[in-house]
Structure formats: C-alpha cells, structure tokens
Amino acid sequence: MLVARARPDNAKQPSSVIKPIPVALMIIGLGVTVYAIQQAGTWGWGSTKTLGLLTAGIVVTVFFVWSQLRASDPLVQVQLLARRAFLGNVTVLFATQFSLLAIVLYSTLYVQDLLDYSPMMAGVADLHRVLQLRQSPAW
Q: What's the DSSP call for residue 9?
C-alpha cells in the first residue's frame, strides 16, 4: 500500500550516451575513497597516506556530483535525492544491505573460528541466506 501511495512518476527517459569522463570520475572517486577506508586499519586513520587518499577520493566524488548537477544529460540524476520518497527508499536499502553484509560476514566468521569449519564449508553453511534473498520477490 505504501509503495502505491509514495511511488514517484516513472517517465521514460530519452536514450542517453554514456560519456567516459563522468564514468571515470565516479569510479576513481568512489574507488579511492573506499580503498582509503579499507586500508585505514592497516595504515592508521591519522597516516598521511590514508588522509591523502580519503581527501582525494572525496574531492573527486564531490566534483563528479557537481558536474552531474550541471550536466544536461547526467550519468547519475543526483536531483532524485531531493525527493523524499526516493531518498527514503535509498536510505532503507542502504541500511538493509549494510545489515545483511554484517549478518553474512559475521556468521561465516563464527562458523570458521568457533565451529572450525573450512572457508568453503562456511560459505556452504551460509548459502541458504543468500538463496532465500534471491527467492524473495522484493529483491
């Protein structure tokens, strides 16, 4: 019921051409940011390497968003985040994916470390969660 009430218009978009520069900006910005966050545990959060890569990634990502706001045919329509229904949907999906990642990660670590399963058997033991998600009509 709520989806039927809050569903935004879904107008057809004209065919778009994917431009390589915005794609490169998005990949570099997000990739460098994620890499800096992943390596912060090893390098330390205060290290020059971490702070430099994190700053560079954020600057490139901000430049990407700025360029998409000004583009006539954007790769990512950032203006959609101004709609409350869309922003709520993205927020809920992010929280759901984040929690599912934690469940899968920690359940496989649990069966490996405490139940002495091999990594392969831990993956097989956790496979039912992934298959249940795949069969769900909402996903």
A: P
Residues in the chain: 139
17 phi/psi in degrees, rounded to 5: -105, 130
Which pair of tokens denotes residue 41? 């545990």
- Kindly give the confidence (pLDDT) of every residue in the chain, 139 residues in length, as a single tens digit, with 9 standing for 90 and above: 565 666 666 666 666 778 899 999 999 999 999 999 999 999 999 999 999 999 999 999 999 999 999 998 898 899 999 999 999 999 999 998 888 888 888 888 999 999 999 999 988 988 887 777 666 555 4
Separation between Cα atoms, residue 123 and residue 105, nearest integer Å: 10
| Maximal CA-CA distance, the chain | 56
- Considering only CA atoms, which of 66, 55, 64 is closest in space to residue 33? 55
Answer whether 93's CB lies under 8 Å from 101's CB: no
Query: pTM of the entire structure?
Result: 0.67
Q: How far apart are CA 86 and CA 7, in angstroms?
A: 9
